[in-house]
């Protein structure tokens, strides 16, 4: 990803205060190009009938995952990215959030927040982008409330007091209608409740941009409709 120079920094409000309201943020991306990195794989080939073998390196070609992809999403909008399996939807989410792995390379293109080009690190640390990945991993033996309290300790600014963190957890639980199961351990939760817990974990920081990979994957039609209704309600709240 192209790095920002010293004259083009990210000018967005700090999220250090509990009273800071959700900031209106427009995220846009221009001519994103993502490919896998070249890697060397090892293979052994016999050069004689003896046990002596020669070690050879085989260079693998890089594979293009996204090519010249551009778009824009604004606060309060829901933008659906659709495509067949392997089309690059998750790759796009990873690139926008700045969380793609070491095996991916972004040689060209930019991601902008409110018109300012950003680095991967800036997007990860800004607090204005939340990313709910397709597969979320939880500790099954802790309660839903305990999980969110722990997430609040990790995600919210160090300046916040314990009471402020607990208040944010309480409000987030209420917002996502998780009150009835907040004392249940995670292994007792339904699929829909776990999806909402994944949303709650990210929404603790009240991100202005929420990236969700496969929000209804593995859910029946009722739960899928409920999750999308929750997302729609969150978008409406952002417009106020």
Automatic annotation (TrEMBL):
Name of the protein: ABC transporter domain-containing protein
Residue intervals of the ABC transporter domain: 47-238
Source superkingdom: Eukaryota
Organism: Rotaria magnacalcarata
Main location per the UniProt record: membrane
Alphabetized InterPro entries for the sequence: AAA+_ATPase (IPR003593), ABC_transporter-like_ATP-bd (IPR003439), ABC_transporter-like_CS (IPR017871), ABCG_transporters (IPR050352), P-loop_NTPase (IPR027417)
Recorded topology in the membrane: Multi-pass membrane protein
Alphabetically ordered keywords of this record: ATP-binding, Membrane, Nucleotide-binding, Transmembrane, Transmembrane helix, Transport
């Amino acid at each position: 990803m192209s790095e920002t120079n010293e004259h083009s920094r990210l000018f967005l409000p700090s999220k250090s205060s509990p009273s800071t309201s959700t900031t209106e943020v427009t995220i846009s991306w221009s001519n994103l190009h993502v490919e896998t990195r070249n890697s060397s794989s090892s293979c052994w080939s016999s050069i004689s009938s003896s046990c002596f073998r020669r070690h050879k390196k085989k260079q693998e070609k890089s594979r293009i995952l996204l090519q010249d992809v551009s778009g824009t999403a604004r606060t309060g909008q829901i933008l659906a990215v659709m495509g067949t399996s392997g089309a690059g939807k998750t790759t796009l989410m990873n690139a926008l959030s700045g969380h793609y792995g070491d095996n991916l390379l972004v040689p060209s293109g930019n991601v902008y927040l409110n018109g300012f080009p950003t680095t991967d690190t800036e997007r990860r640390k800004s607090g204005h982008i939340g990313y709910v990945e397709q597969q979320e991993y939880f500790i099954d033996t802790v309660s839903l409330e305990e999980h969110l309290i722990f997430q609040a300790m990790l995600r919210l600014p160090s300046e916040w007091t314990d009471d402020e963190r607990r208040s944010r957890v309480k409000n987030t639980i209420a917002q996502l209608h998780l009150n009835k199961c907040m004392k249940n351990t995670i292994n007792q939760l339904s699929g829909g409740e776990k999806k909402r817990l994944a949303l709650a974990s990210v929404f603790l920081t009240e991100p202005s941009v929420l990236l969700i990979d496969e929000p209804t994957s593995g859910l029946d039609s009722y739960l899928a409709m409920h999750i999308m209704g929750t997302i729609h309600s969150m978008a409406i709240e952002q417009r106020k």
